[in-house]
Design goal:
single chain; 149 residues; alpha+beta; ph1033 like fold; two-stranded antiparallel ribbon; 3 helices; 16% helix; globular
Length: 149
């Protein structure tokens, strides 16, 4: 059975500057892996074939900007993967999942467009709080709605 997820990236701090979550996601998609904190909620449930949409929580905007299909279970970062880590919190992460397929969307899909339609956001006046953490399980219907919007 395939599980569906939202992988959440936040702005990072790097050498006294801010790297946007959108840039972080683009880097992860280009290198076909997602860095994870070993204590992330849901990390033990990730498996090959699962699908995830990527959510950016950034000063540049909040919304969805891509998707991927997992090729691996979570594993310790390889030296090559660690090379691509920059900024906090990513430099603190020790695990990753690799992607079989990963796609970055050039145009952010703003979260405001989904607030009244996604099952986990409906009826929540402060729906931004639903994006705390780095991994969130969602339904197949919500996943398909996001990628088709």
């Amino acid at each position: 059975m395939v599980n569906y997820w939202i992988f959440i990236a936040k702005d990072h701090k790097y050498d006294k500057s801010i790297v946007s979550a959108i840039t972080i996601i683009k880097n992860r998609v280009e290198n076909k892996f997602w860095m994870l904190n070993k204590n992330a909620r849901g990390i033990k449930k990730l498996k090959p074939g699962d699908k995830a949409v990527f959510y950016a929580a950034s000063v540049e905007g909040r919304g969805f900007c891509g998707w991927g299909e997992l090729a691996t279970e979570p594993h310790p970062l390889t030296p090559e993967q660690r090379f691509y880590a920059f900024g906090k919190p990513s430099i603190l992460f020790d695990f990753a999942v690799d992607f079989k397929v990963a796609e970055f969307w050039p145009k952010l899909k703003p979260i405001e467009e989904f607030a009244s339609t996604l099952s986990f956001l409906k009826g929540k006046p402060n729906y931004i709080r639903c994006f705390r953490g780095s991994i969130k399980a969602i339904t197949q219907e919500d996943f398909e709605y996001i990628i088709s919007a």
